[in-house]
């Protein structure tokens, strides 16, 4: 994940009030309609809400939706709980960091040179 795009709704169309149609907005290729960027599963329990439109506020709801639209399956509560438990094992320790405090820019501040 992270650098891949996948179709949302393989078995059943994803129904949403959100009008986003995926990567087609950038590529103009019909094949990219409803293809969305897939983020990594690392720390997935911390990155709610889920999906491009924030439809799923919990991992449990996200698992139910994905089971239905991607697999054509309705998970039992026990199956859902096992999948959610697995996804939670992908949560790691969050690094402790502080954002730097930079001095204010002036008219003598050099502009950035990101490609040199």
TrEMBL record:
<protein>
    <submittedName>
        <fullName>Cytochrome C biogenesis protein CcsA</fullName>
    </submittedName>
</protein>
<feature type="compositionally biased region" description="Basic and acidic residues">
    <location>
        <begin position="107"/>
        <end position="116"/>
    </location>
</feature>
<dbReference type="GO" id="GO:0020037">
    <property type="term" value="F:heme binding"/>
</dbReference>
<dbReference type="GO" id="GO:0004130">
    <property type="term" value="F:cytochrome-c peroxidase activity"/>
</dbReference>
<feature type="region of interest" description="Disordered">
    <location>
        <begin position="95"/>
        <end position="116"/>
    </location>
</feature>
<dbReference type="InterPro" id="IPR051395">
    <property type="entry name" value="Cytochrome_c_Peroxidase/MauG"/>
</dbReference>
<dbReference type="InterPro" id="IPR036909">
    <property type="entry name" value="Cyt_c-like_dom_sf"/>
</dbReference>
<dbReference type="GO" id="GO:0009055">
    <property type="term" value="F:electron transfer activity"/>
</dbReference>
């Amino acid at each position: 994940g992270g650098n891949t795009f996948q179709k949302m709704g393989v078995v059943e169309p994803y129904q949403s009030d959100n009008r986003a149609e995926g990567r087609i907005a950038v590529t103009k290729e019909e094949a990219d309609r409803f293809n969305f960027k897939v983020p990594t599963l690392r720390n997935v329990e911390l990155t709610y809400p889920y999906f491009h439109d924030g439809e799923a506020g919990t991992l449990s709801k996200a698992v139910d939706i994905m089971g239905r639209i991607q697999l054509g399956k309705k998970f039992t509560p026990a199956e859902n709980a096992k999948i959610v438990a697995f996804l939670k094992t992908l949560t790691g320790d969050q690094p402790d960091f502080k954002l730097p405090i930079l001095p204010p820019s002036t008219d003598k501040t050099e502009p950035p040179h990101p490609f040199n």
